[in-house]
Design goal:
Radius of gyration: 20 Å
Order of helices and strands: HHHHHEEEEHHEHHEHEEEHHEEEHHH
Largest sheet: 6 strands, antiparallel
Oligomer: single chain
Strand order of the largest sheet: 6-7-8-9-11-10
Number of domains: 1
Number of strands: 12
């Protein structure tokens, strides 16, 4: 099955589970043609289909509740219950039980593509070593969240780019169009549940963001509260694309809340799964970090190391897997991660070339 046929089949599967926003889906298709990195981010369903075939031995390794669609732009910051600034993985749309190596290979592949796009300045060998160093150390020490207060000053500086300034943030929010037509009552209820006060007046906007979830309904509520603006987002979710890749036609669970609850983590109290909507607070410091906006200033390897550590924080949520993963890592050849990464990237590149030639918009 080629990438065009796989995309049609996946989108048919998706359309049976949630209403599709056709305009956003066409934008996604155009982004998929633009460059290999956005193609990679847009096509996790294809990765889920190819991964167990191309990396069959790795796919049989110790199983965890994994992120699934892990990549270098799947990290951000939020405020925990104590108001502290936390950094880590901030999107679990594709959470699914699978071999731990999937997340490591996908993270390394995304870093390689980010280098090719000019966002990072690293070699493939260094990418794999940095990710594995952080991952292995976190497993040995049983993990630790990243609280950007008195610790991790360098990471806080990396995370707090100019584009996360409140003026820039709200200027971007102002670019979204007001929602026209009706909005599902379940989305309205999910948003209003997360508001700081009842009966608060707000404006509903149609938010266009991300790549993998373009085509899903996404509503942004913006309100004035105590002298300033606040925002809440509701995004429609379905179960992981892994179920499609496995040929599962049943009604599997959405595991977003489960993976968050189990991980070694200072969770965001404003991220909640309500029915089939993931709702969250959005603010200058409660949002995803795009790698193109990050001023790494020679900190690229340190950044990948902490990304590897944070990956282990998630996998440690599967309590029985820690010792098995460490044993498995000890038994692997030294270049296993870079070899698997290159194998998957060859498949991604071939798919991208085919999509550019035959893909639709």
């Amino acid at each position: 099955m080629n990438i065009v046929k796989a995309t049609r089949q996946f989108e048919d599967w998706l359309g049976c589970r949630t209403p599709i926003v056709e305009k956003d889906l066409r934008l996604k298709h155009r982004n998929m043609k633009a460059a290999e990195f956005p193609f990679f981010r847009s096509t996790y369903y294809r990765w889920a289909q190819l991964w167990p075939k191309i990396c069959s031995e790795l796919a049989k390794g110790p199983q965890v509740l994994a992120v699934g669609d892990l990549h270098v732009e799947n990290f951000g910051t939020w405020r925990d219950l104590e108001g502290r600034l936390i950094w880590g993985v901030n999107d679990f749309d594709e959470a699914h039980p699978m071999a731990y190596a999937n997340d490591l290979v996908r993270l390394a592949a995304s870093a390689q593509l980010a280098c090719e796009a000019g966002h990072l300045q690293l070699r493939g060998k260094d990418i794999g070593e940095a990710i594995l160093e952080g991952y292995r150390n976190a497993l040995r020490e049983q993990g630790r969240p990243f609280v950007l207060g008195e610790n991790h000053n360098w990471l806080r500086e990396v995370a707090e780019s100019e584009l996360r300034d409140p003026v820039h943030f709200w200027t971007k929010m102002d670019t979204f169009e007001k929602v026209k037509g009706s909005v599902p009552i379940s989305a309205v209820d999910a948003i209003e549940h997360l508001m700081p006060a009842p009966n608060l007046k707000y404006t509903l906007l149609h938010r266009v963001a991300g790549l993998g979830s373009l085509g899903h309904a996404r509503y942004l509520a913006v309100a004035q509260w105590h002298g300033g603006r606040i925002a809440r987002e509701a995004k429609a979710l379905v179960s992981s694309a892994c179920y499609w890749a496995e040929g599962n036609e049943g009604p599997p669970d959405i595991l977003y809340q489960t993976v968050v609850n189990r991980a070694v983590r200072c969770p965001d109290p404003f991220v909640q799964l309500r029915g089939r909507w993931i709702v969250r607070r959005l603010s200058p410091h409660c949002s995803r970090i795009e790698i193109a906006d990050v001023e790494t200033a020679g900190q690229e390897l340190k950044l990948l190391t902490v990304m590897g550590w944070e990956t282990a924080n998630i996998h440690l949520g599967t309590a029985t897997a820690r010792k098995a993963i460490l044993r498995d890592l000890d038994n692997k050849k030294s270049k296993w991660l870079i070899e698997a990464t290159q194998n998957m990237l060859r498949a991604v590149n071939a798919d991208w070339k085919n999509w550019r030639k035959e893909g639709y918009e």
